[in-house]
Please model this.
Amino acid sequence: MYLLPGSLLLLIFSFSPRLSCLQLSKCNNTEVTLIRKTELLTSLTLSNCTLPHVENGFFVRFDHLLHLELQHSGLSDLDDFSLNGLTKLQYLSLSHNNLSSLRSWSSEPLGALTNLDLSHNMLSKLSVKSFEQYPQLQQLDLRYNRISQIENDSFDGLSHLKHLYLNGNQLAHIDGSFFRGLHRLSSLSLQHNRIEFIEMDSFESNTHLRSLRLDQNLLSSLQFLSQRGLARLVHLNLSSNLLQKLEPFVFSKNFELQDLDLSYNNITKLNKEALSGLDSLERLNISHNYVDKIYDESLDSLIALLQLDISFNLLTTLPDNLFHFNTQLEEIILANNKIEEISSQMMFNQNHLRYIKLSGNAISDAAFLDRLSPSVNRFTLYVDLSSNRLKSLNLSSLLHFRYINLADNNWSCNWLVANLVQKLPNSVNFARPWTVINNLSENTTNVEGIDCIEGGTNRSIILLDVSGVPQPKSDNCDCVVAYDETNPSPPPLTWPKIPTDRFDSRSVIIWMLVAIAIAFSGLRWLRRFVDRNEKRKLGQKMLHNVYVSKVQWQAIRTDPDQRS
Ligand SMILES: *[C@@H]1O[C@H](CO)[C@@H](O)[C@H](O)[C@H]1NC(C)=O
Ligand SMILES: *[C@@H]1O[C@H](CO)[C@@H](O)[C@H](O)[C@H]1NC(C)=O
Ligand SMILES: *[C@@H]1O[C@H](CO)[C@@H](O)[C@H](O)[C@H]1NC(C)=O
Ligand SMILES: *[C@@H]1O[C@H](CO)[C@@H](O)[C@H](O)[C@H]1NC(C)=O
Ligand SMILES: *[C@@H]1O[C@H](CO)[C@@H](O)[C@H](O)[C@H]1NC(C)=O
Ligand SMILES: *[C@@H]1O[C@H](CO)[C@@H](O)[C@H](O)[C@H]1NC(C)=O
Ligand SMILES: *[C@@H]1O[C@H](CO)[C@@H](O)[C@H](O)[C@H]1NC(C)=O
Ligand SMILES: *[C@@H]1O[C@H](CO)[C@@H](O)[C@H](O)[C@H]1NC(C)=O
Ligand SMILES: *[C@@H]1O[C@H](CO)[C@@H](O)[C@H](O)[C@H]1NC(C)=O
Ligand SMILES: *[C@@H]1O[C@H](CO)[C@@H](O)[C@H](O)[C@H]1NC(C)=O
Ligand SMILES: *[C@@H]1O[C@H](CO)[C@@H](O)[C@H](O)[C@H]1NC(C)=O
Ligand SMILES: *[C@@H]1O[C@H](CO)[C@@H](O)[C@H](O)[C@H]1NC(C)=O
Model:
């Protein structure tokens, strides 16, 4: 409603007569001075107004305000005493304006102000005692300005400050003097700057610092981590920097660290002592680096580790006992490496596993899944083995997993068919549900099959249930796939026409599940090969070279009732 060009005022009086809010948009200076009953106002929001300049004493009439926002209004200049009188103000936001310099803007302390938001302005420098009139500040937001310079003692007097946001600025280095005196600082956001260098005593007085964000900077060394001020750090984000290696014992002073994000760096090796000292670490992320080697024992000190992400690296092998001491592990993410083998004892010590992600590797054998610790709860376990090179695996051990992704592997067609005649639970995923088509008039080309390899050719399998359709007489052929290329036998049923254009360079096999009822005693299978390349040579639109072979299939799971 207040967005209508004509109606600029919206007064919202809440039920309590003492609490009232006013929101104004698209206003100007004159309109603000016309506001009446200002003694009732506790919250004033001015947005998208035209207020380039605020003069001295502008807000004196609003001395009951607790909450003041002046945003998106082109504000570029505040007189030195323009905030005078706001003695009860707790929250002040001047974000999204054009402020280029920062002063105290008040002749006396704004003793109630705890939260100041100056984000998205044009500040380029913080000068001495900029904040001296805001002694109670707990949160200071200077995000997305152009700050490249912080003078000594800029934050002087902010002894209650807990959260400081300086992300999205142009800081190139952190000096020892920047954060001096911020004794209660608990979180500091410095991400998305251009920080190359951090002086050794930068955080010396910030002994309460729990969370430090340094991601998206240009750091290549982590020497600064060993200073006393960072001993109680819990969250550390170093993602998207230029780290190439982790020096031995570089984290040895950060024994309270729980979260460490090293993703998107240039780390190439994980050495034995690189992570030592991280006794409390629960989440480690080294994804998107160039790690091609993890040495024995490199994770040994991480006894509290719950989650490990080393995806998107260049690993080919892993030490057999890599996780030997990480007995609390719940999530292991090793996706998108070049890992060829997971040793079967590797995950034997993990009793709490819930998530194993190995997609996008070169694994050809999943026997390690049979050797998981007996106490792992398989009903809550999620395993992703998609995009590997598995040819076959022992499905019976996987049927009770919460979810297993087996899409996009190098399945042998024979293994696939033999196993998938059984009804698999939905938790076993081969890229698409293994739906049985039981309506022959359905457009079978709209059904995508499951890919497999047979005789060096990529194929796709579709399963058809023709139990409802009259059977052609079948001689009991001997389980041999026999088809005559030169003289294909005619299709036994009225087949749907298959425009094979969609199956580039691979063939389609259609497996026909003859009858679900017979499925448990012995199956009759028909399979058809449609070779697209041959068809193209013939230049025919219609499907002529259809090879049909009849295979009698032994049931892989015998129904006890029908067993004779
Ligand atoms: C402020 O806006 C009102 C209404 O839009 C207009 O009548 C008035 O002239 C404006 N004052 C200034 C100083 O621009
Ligand atoms: C004010 O302008 C900003 C950006 O121009 C826009 O995102 C926002 O929705 C506007 N707010 C109001 C209340 O008009
Ligand atoms: C803010 O400053 C920028 C650059 O100086 C200018 O382009 C823009 O028009 C100013 N915005 C307002 C609302 O004055
Ligand atoms: C800032 O402090 C540092 C160390 O305390 C000192 O060396 C430097 O001269 C000071 N800079 C200014 C401008 O006062
Ligand atoms: C670290 O920062 C990146 C952005 O630079 C973010 O995507 C990631 O979630 C952060 N990590 C943690 C653990 O918060
Ligand atoms: C990071 O490593 C990659 C591969 O080794 C290299 O191509 C790239 O130039 C490196 N980047 C930096 C900033 O060192
Ligand atoms: C690790 O970091 C990457 C990149 O920031 C992110 O995509 C991924 O989700 C993180 N892993 C975990 C387990 O949070
Ligand atoms: C498959 O797994 C089951 C259960 O884990 C086991 O009993 C069986 O011996 C395994 N079969 C093969 C061929 O390894
Ligand atoms: C897929 O399996 C076939 C044989 O079944 C083998 O010739 C081929 O090299 C395998 N491809 C990959 C990428 O492992
Ligand atoms: C089979 O599919 C066709 C076309 O999709 C549909 O018209 C017909 O009703 C279906 N028959 C049965 C028995 O589902
Ligand atoms: C079957 O699907 C193909 C490809 O989607 C389409 O071109 C064709 O018209 C469909 N045929 C029928 C009978 O729906
Ligand atoms: C089979 O498909 C894979 C992946 O799409 C491809 O890399 C490979 O070359 C194909 N092989 C043949 C024989 O077409």
